[in-house]
Write a structure and sequence with these properties.
Layout lengths: L6 E2 L12 H16 L9 H11 L11 H5 L15 H4 L17 E4 L5 E5 L14 H8 L4 H9 L9 H9 L14 H18 L2 H4 L21 E2 L8 E2 L13 E2 L2
Antiparallel strand pairs: 1-6, 2-3, 4-5
Helix pairs in contact: 1-2, 2-8, 5-6, 7-8
The structure holds copper (II) ion.
The site of copper (II) ion has 4 residues, from helix 7.
Length: 263
């Protein structure tokens, strides 16, 4: 479901400089809309509508993970108001075709993936119901009960950090297709909703003990070597899309660089 919206206070975050002025106006407008009415009822083009939703929203999948029927009927997968439903073949367990055939991204072309190759293809999804239990409240509690960021992130992340599935990789693998592919996953707009939710869980974990947890960071810069160990002074790579930012400056979502809170 789309129960809530992250509220941006003041100028929108690091993404703002990348966004053309007109789109930016909509995103800033989008920040105020949910208090009044659903973003969906606005007269934006569907693209801008979804842009606003994905940038400023998260998907709390614990509300949809009870069983397959609940998940498939989630507003997230609504064929017109959501992000498109799973391909019929995937719902009945067949291997193809897996193109997302309805919704705003029905003719959405991706150029990266599967795996590391460049190939123009339509957005794909393949429902994997067997991992739904990993998106339930108990699994979120397993992460938020951790006392250090190191154990928190391992409990959150899953493969390849852990042999067992955790909430991060479960979200990817349940949706499957491009989302299930390490390289192509960010091509599915659901990637943003899923990661916003993980960010929200991290944020709530931090706020339970801000004194310690707003500066508690660890981990590696990449999955495969060569990697660097992460510290507060680690500079986040943005290629040419934005200015580099020090991790220590984005630890707090309500700090100076980021400027939003989860509701
Ligand atoms: Cu991910």
């Amino acid at each position: 479901m789309f129960p809530n919206l992250s509220v941006t206070l003041g100028p929108i975050s690091a993404v703002a400089p990348l966004v053309p002025q007109r789109v930016r106006k909509y995103t800033e407008e989008g920040v105020r809309i949910p208090r009044r009415k659903s973003v969906r009822s606005e007269n934006f083009s569907s693209y801008l509508n979804l842009f606003v939703q994905t940038l400023r929203r998260y998907w709390d999948w614990t509300q949809d993970s009870r069983d397959s029927e609940t998940f498939l009927n989630s507003p997230v997968f609504h064929p017109t108001l959501g992000f498109g439903s799973f391909p019929a073949a995937s719902r009945s367990g067949q291997a193809s075709p897996l193109d997302v055939g309805n919704g705003p991204f029905a003719s959405y072309m991706l150029s990266y993936g599967p795996r590391g190759v460049v190939s123009n293809h339509r957005l794909t999804r393949a429902f994997n119901s067997t991992l739904l239990p990993y998106l339930r409240t108990a699994l979120v509690s397993n992460t938020t009960r951790q006392s250090t960021f190191e154990t928190f992130r391992v409990e959150l992340e899953g493969g390849p950090m852990t042999p067992r599935v955790k909430i991060h990789d479960a979200g990817h693998r349940i949706i499957g297709g491009d989302m299930g592919d390490t390289y192509a996953s960010f091509g599915d707009p659901l990637f943003v909703l899923h990661h916003s939710n993980l960010d929200r869980i991290w944020d709530s974990w931090q706020r339970a003990d801000p004194q310690r947890r707003m500066s508690d960071i660890s981990g590696r810069s990449t999955t495969d070597p060569p990697y660097e160990d992460i510290t507060l002074d680690f500079s986040l790579e943005t290629d040419e899309l934005a200015q580099r930012v020090r991790i220590g400056d984005v630890m707090d979502t309500q700090g100076g660089v980021l400027c939003y809170r989860y509701v």
